[in-house]
Amino acid sequence: MVFPRFPICFFLSDFWAWGACRLDFKFQPLKFLRMLMMKKFRKDQMKNCFEQQDFSSVVQVDGKNDRISNLPDCVLQYILSFLTTKEAVATGVLSRRWKHLWTGVPILDFDDSLLYSSQLNLWYPLEVSLFMNFVERVLLLRDASRIERFRLSCRVCFSPSRVHAWISAAVRHKVEELDLCLFVDDPFSLPHCILNCGSLTVLKLEMNCVLQLPCSISLPGLKIMHLGLVTFSDDKSTQRLLSCCPLLEELAVLDCEWMNLRCISISITSLKRLIIDELPDFDSNGNSQGCQIKIDARNLLLLKYSGYLTNEMHICDVSSLVKASLNIPMLCQTGNQIQFSRFLNLVHSVKHVRSLSLTNLTLEGLDPSIRLAKEEWTPKSASRGFLSRLKIVDVQNFHGNDAEVHLLQILLECATFLERINIFCCKDSLGCSNNQENMRNHLQSLPRVSDSCVIVFS
């Protein structure tokens, strides 16, 4: 069988076509094993297989005996897991010993972006067919071992029925980590088995359509959930999803559409990390009230928010919060008082954290309000807040303008326990070493309440 346009290296049947025909793959077991031994292997990860064998004796091949092929299957499959699935399957032609090893590799990664031509960024129907057949054959010939991680990215090769079958096959193999990136043209619902998978610990879903959820959801072992680009359908089903993950530790909601929601409560006792990245409000009037997001997570350690405060966040209990990061661009440029009020409430809710990160866009957005309320932005008023406990300050993208210098002056005068200020200069403003030296001398001359504080420029 001959496929035009493809630099065919080797294949024994249709099954090897996509796995090998577009891959200039020269597998060197000895070199690869040595690299992994030095850089990636941890001895404790393979102690059940090696049983205190000396690694150096394993990687030495004397020309007659192939000691690599004599390694236990679990070790070789662990090695193959560092390859792409395409490359791992291609090793099946090395020898009879390697023929079926790939069928037990714990990590499967299928990405149709490999179909794109590196020069023309085009894809061809024949390649799409080969990719789909390849995925199905890999899953069909797989042994009974469980799948640790299953990643499927379909931006071109999307067939609802076949994608359903692939995902269901992964669930039957008791998949632990499921990473799906699906670009769909028509409404698409996920297999219900995903949201009732007891073995699942990590779920990452990126899908540009409405998230249709089943009536019954049970994810007893899920610890990490990332949702990207999805459109939430309604309050009831979304709340059901968040309430059926009793062990959830990390929740990321990235560029999702909240427009169908009115009020959602994120009340998860086990939650430790919450990341919300919102899309801008495309409402022409800019008066959209958005969704009310109530956060009640007493064990939360990290809160990262990036967006335009389209939705209103009510933080009820985050008493354990250690680090917060806020990025609200164009805060005051829009003149939206609702947005500014939501920002103040958000900052007030996280004022007790040890580390608070505000992006330069957020600070620049605050600048007009600071000038309007100049009598309130004084050392006397600032000392009553969290500045009295501040120890380390990082200033990114420093321009050296009056507002920034004034802010540093207040920090020096109010932060009793301040130990260090790290200033990362903007090259466009303070790129010259003389400018940095002059600014350093000026800041060093400012009065400070902490004698041990040092100012470092980078």
Structure report:
The chain is globular. Among the domains are: 1-105, no CATH class; 373-458, no CATH class. 30% of the residues lie in helices and 20% in strands. The chain is built from 15 helices and 18 strands. The strands form 4 sheets. The protein has a 10-stranded parallel sheet with strand order 1-2-3-4-6-8-10-12-14-15. The chain has helices spanning 14-20, 29-39, 47-50, 55-59, 73-80, 85-90, 125-140, 160-172, 235-243, 337-349, 360-372, 379-382, 402-414, 427-430, 433-444; strands at residues 107-111, 149-154, 177-182, 202-207, 210-211, 224-228, 231-232, 250-256, 263-266, 273-278, 292-296, 302-306, 312-317, 323-327, 355-358, 392-398, 420-425, 454-457. The chain is of the alpha/beta class. Helix 1 (14-20) crosses helix 7 (125-140) and helix 7 runs parallel beside helix 8. Residues 1-14, 20-27, 36-62 and 369-376 have low confidence and may be disordered. InterPro entries: F-box-like_dom_sf, F-box_AtFBL13-like, F-box_dom, FBD, FBL13/AtMIF1-like, LRR_At1g61320_AtMIF1. Pfam families: F-box, LRR_At1g61320_AtMIF1. It comes from Oldenlandia corymbosa var. corymbosa.
